[in-house]
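tool=predict chain=A
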Amino acid sequence: MFLSRQHRTALALLSYSLHNRAMFCIVCGDIGTGKTTLLRYLLSRHAPHIAVGMITSTTGTFAELLQWMLLEFGLDYHGLDKIGMQQELVGYFKRLEMLNKRAVLVIDEAQALAAEVLEELRLFSNVNAGRTMLLQTVLVGQLSLRDTLRRPDMRQLMQRVAVDYQLTPLDKEQTGGYIRHRLRLAGGREDLFTGDACDAVFAASSGIPRVVNLLCDMALAYGFADQKLTVDGATVSEMLADRAREAS
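tool=predict ok
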């Protein structure tokens, strides 16, 4: 996990919210900005005290979402109707509470959920009313998730949101630090990519970590083919020119 300033801020806000049992948290960002990686890193640090249900890329009705929730928490949904599934989940959450634990539901790619499903999820969260927080929900998605949540009919859900944070791409300095970070973790030299190479990768990737990874992997292959001891700006430029020709 490379903690840029924005990732560190998101981590601090989410950690604080989970500690204080916030009902809803939202993390949005462009594709490849590290949303899922951040959440997995966060939850791994809280694992002993939290039962995590992590759902990725779900669509459909709220009943289907309930089935995924039951599966992720290790419960059986077969033979249960919509009310029965909700009762099964509530019973599980209460059993966790008795063990001094709590449940956190993470929905990745939450921008795929219809507004009607989000509203039903908000209504289901009323299980927390008048008692210790039984369920915390973290919605992770692309920027279109925010567009959905800003609709007037989503106001009641947004009133329950403790954290609404947008992850942005890395800047030029952070991109260089990110490349050096990955090289160090891989056991390589931190100066394997020259400053010009890092700048060229930043310009081509717009600072999106997933794209940085891809371009650096390809640049390493080009450097190896040329038997270079470092990956310089010329190597990255050659690689980018070849990619542009292949895409045209």
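The first helix runs from residue 5 to 19. The domain at 5-167 is CATH 3.40.50.300 (Rossmann fold).
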